[in-house]
Amino acid sequence: VGLAPAVLRQLGEDIERMKAQGVCIVLVEHEMEFIQRACDQIVAMANGRVVAQGDFETVAANDEVRSAYLGR
User: Fold this and answer.
1) Alpha-carbon torsion 7, 5, 70, 19, what sign?
2) What is the pLDDT confidence band of residue 43, given thresholds at 50, 70 and 90?
3) What's the pLDDT at 1?
4) What's the rounded Cα separation, in Å, for the pair 66 and 72?
5) Distance between CA 45 and CA 30 in Å, rounded?
6) Which CA distances in Å does 44 have to 3, 6, 23, 61, 70?
């Protein structure tokens, strides 16, 4: 929660290196810009259930995801 921008940038670089090595990573995060950069596939949950899954554009366009996470 609330990582400093430099730490978040380093974490993103570390994740990119691991992905390039074929490592699968499960990431729990709410920072949408970070998710967009770091994740190939996303599973969005709200109230304990999956509400959307797919690439960032698909999940971010989902009305239930937008309501739960983006306040729209």
Assistant:
1) negative
2) very high
3) 60
4) 5
5) 11
6) 21, 26, 21, 12, 12
Q: Is 12 exposed, middle or buried (0-12, 13-18, 19+ CB in 10 A)?
A: middle
Query: DSSP string of the chain?
Result: ----HHHHHHHHHHHHHHHHTT---------HHHHHHH-SSEEEEETTEEEEEESHHHHHH-HHHIIIII--
> In the chain, what percentage of residues exceed pLDDT 70?
97
Cα separation values, 65 from 28, 45, 54, Å: 15, 8, 12
pLDDT at residue 72 in the model: 62
